[in-house]
């Protein structure tokens, strides 16, 4: 069953006890019809986006931290915004979001306090690019109205996964 944006906004407001309407970003899962594991070896691929997606709801917060909650993991993570650029992996699910945030900070994007609520209907570990959808939705959420070339966002997600998450 697909996630409903209005429900995600409501869950965000309940989680953060806020009447603020967050911005909502999503990135779909994907599957390769041909070329599995050849894309990063410069081989031919034929990927398609799925209806399943990862959603990230975000709102600015005055507490100076990046507070992240995953509905699916029923887990939260927090880091002071000033420490994002030097963050190290923790070996948990939040490394995907933290890796993206660190890549953005190292690219010169100023990150300030924010509350993030993550919900996804892309099954983790199923080969449908659930980590990539989380990384890209997080990147767009953290960028907000700031612009970055789509290819750079994709490469940023790739760096976060390969160099930060491992």
Question: What topology emerges from the helices and strands here?
Answer:
Elements: H1 5-15, E1 23-32, E2 47-60, E3 65-70, E4 75-80, H2 95-106, E5 114-120, H3 130-143, H4 150-165
Parallel strand pairs: 3-5
Antiparallel strand pairs: 1-2, 2-5, 3-4
Helix pairs in contact: 2-3, 2-4, 3-4
Brief account:
This protein is of the alpha+beta class. It has four helices and five strands. The longest helix has 16 residues.
Description:
This protein is an alpha+beta fold and 166 residues long. It is 32% helix and 26% strand. It has four helices and five strands. Strands 1-2-5-3-4 form a five-stranded mixed beta sheet, with helices on both faces. It is globular, with a radius of gyration of 15 Å. The mean pLDDT is 91.
Q: Indicate the overall shape.
A: globular
Average pLDDT for all residues: 91
Q: How many E-type strands?
A: 5
The strand order across the widest sheet is 1-2-5-3-4
Number of helices: 4
Q: How much helical structure, as a percent, in the residues?
A: 25-40%
Rg value: 15 Å
Outline the biggest β-sheet: 5 strands, mixed
Low-confidence blocks of residues: none
Order of helices and strands: HEEEEHEHH
**In what range is the share of β-strand residues?**
25-35%
Distance between the termini: 31 Å
